[in-house]
């Protein structure tokens, strides 16, 4: 009887520890996603400022297009990182289901 009760206590404690670990991991991933979203926003804002400056200076469309390609490449990389982290979050959620 005492062994059964102790097994239940151990099981509950183990589930609580696992839940805390999953919460910490998911919180960390969410913060990383937020950081990457911030980088995307910053890249777009910086691009806008650069294009404005380029247009003021009379730069050729080819230079603006090259700048866009560079920013687009970086943003796509950030988006891919976000997608991977969202998959990690999904796995954590599925493990808890």
Give a brief description:
By secondary structure, the protein is mainly alpha-helical.
Would you mind describing this structure in some detail?
With 97 residues, the protein is mainly α. It has 2 helices and no strands. The protein has helices spanning 2-56, 61-96. The longest helix has 55 residues, at 2-56. 0% of the residues are buried.
Which secondary structure elements does this structure contain, and how are they paired or packed?
Blueprint: H1 2-56, H2 61-96
Helix pairs in contact: 1-2
List keywords for this structure.
0% strand; single chain; 2 helices; mainly alpha; 97 residues; rod-shaped
Could you say which structural class the secondary elements and strand pairing correspond to?
Answer: mainly alpha
Q: Total helix count?
A: 2
Number of strands: 0
Mean pLDDT: 90
Element pattern in H and E: HH
Shape: rod-shaped
Strand content: under 5%
| Fraction of residues in H or I helices | over 70%
- Unreliable stretches (pLDDT < 50, length at least 5) are none
The whole-angstrom Rg is 23 Å
């Amino acid at each position: 009887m005492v062994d059964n009760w102790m097994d239940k206590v151990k099981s509950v404690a183990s589930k609580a520890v696992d839940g805390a670990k999953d919460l910490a991991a998911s919180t960390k991933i969410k913060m990383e996603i937020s950081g990457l979203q911030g980088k995307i926003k910053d890249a777009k804002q910086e691009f806008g400022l650069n294009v404005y400056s380029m247009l003021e200076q009379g730069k050729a469309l080819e230079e603006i297009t090259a700048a866009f390609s560079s920013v687009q490449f970086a943003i796509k990389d950030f988006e891919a990182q976000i997608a991977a982290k969202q998959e990690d979050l999904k796995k954590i959620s599925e493990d808890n289901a």
